[in-house]
Amino acid sequence: MTTTAATSVPPELDAGALARWRDGGGKLIELFEAARELGPVAGFRLGERRIVLVTGAEQVQHVLAKNPDTYVKHGHRAKVLLGDGLLCASGEPWKRQRKVLHPQFTGRGIRAYEPQIRAAVAGIAERWAAAAATGEAREIDADLRHFSLEVIWRSLTAHPLDPETHQRLIAAGDSLAAIPAFAPATGEIADDFREANERADVAAAHAIALAGEAEEPHLLAVLLKAAAELPDYTERLVRDELLTLVVAGYETTATALSWLFLLLDAHPEQRDWALAAGPVGSPERAAAIRALVDETLRLYPVAWLMPRYAAAADTLDGLAVEAGMTVLLCPYLTHRDAELWPDPEEFRPQRFLEAGRRPVPGAYFPFGLGPRACVGAQFAVREMVLLLEELLPAYRAEIRETPEEVGYAITVHPAGPVRAVLHPQGE
Ligand code: HEM
Question: Where does heme bind (predicted)?
Fold first, then answer.
């Protein structure tokens, strides 16, 4: 994508937007929205930092898929808790670790853990049946968090999630979720994480003890085998990897599901459409439910901001990117670009099933793109579809309290509890 007319002087960002953001009166997303107006690649300064915001599909593809060695992960925010786990690793260690985990999260691997997903689905279905009988509103976001945590815990250990571990992991995860989207260097926040790390260590030791007794397939067996066979795969790395899978896997999935129930409350006809697509267990119904998930992740790509560090100079759409600059990818903005997505603000899952309307490369990346894309993407989609196949026909979730704000931290999330009354539906 090198062009001859590269400029090293970033176009000026609207001074008003920058000032509002600096004064705390605006959100980071407003700053990015203003920057996006400059074009598919926009450069600006935030204090000492020189930022390049990339929102054009072709340029997203260039950064994430075609040039992952130029645009690298660097000093990940989650390292304070997740250490050298896959999310924060780089270089050769990352390659080795990815090779161990990847097969567990594709076709046959996922099928091995499907009984654990189904057990977690049965658990939430039971809780919702009891709640529906009372007619009282409940925090369904907490239910969905419990569900997705149970899925990953069961897949790791082949054991149900006990209440103490549930609490410990949620508390550890919450401390990470509270890091602002644009965090200071990890050293500055490490002190705040002592307690979270202690909790996480107890949970990890418990998981390892449980996994030793398990007979069904479980992910920890794969990690422990790697530790026994590979020289650099230390016990500490087993702990980091285990916590990485928990933390990367549960909040993201649960938040996507919360958005989905909020969107279905505003668009009840879309729930009816998905259920009418085919009978229980049919591929047609599964495809329509998958489209609900895809469209939810288009409007709310939970991992809404992906930072990269330019390890070498490059030129992006005429802008000279210098080594050392921070490059930000923002699927939240790319997914709402009217040139890529007609009527971008509309919730219209059918767009994912229309023949010949596959998104252009780089236009849709809720799970990232290229070699560092989400290792758990297929697993997450399978988990969400299995849950929705069970819950959607059985209940209509009437949202009683919609959070007014959208939170933009490590995830884009409803900023407050999502309370709903569950109305049993006959099918
Ligand atoms: C809706 C659910 C999910 C979303 C939206 C999501 C999103 C993402 C994204 C965007 C990335 C890449 C970040 C980047 O390039 O900077 C990522 C990486 C990752 N995700 Fe997910 N994820 C989800 C569920 C899961 C699940 C269920 C697991 C595991 C069980 C998981 C494990 C990981 C790991 C380990 C990485 C790091 C991969 C690597 O760097 O090689 N994620 N995820």
Answer: 374
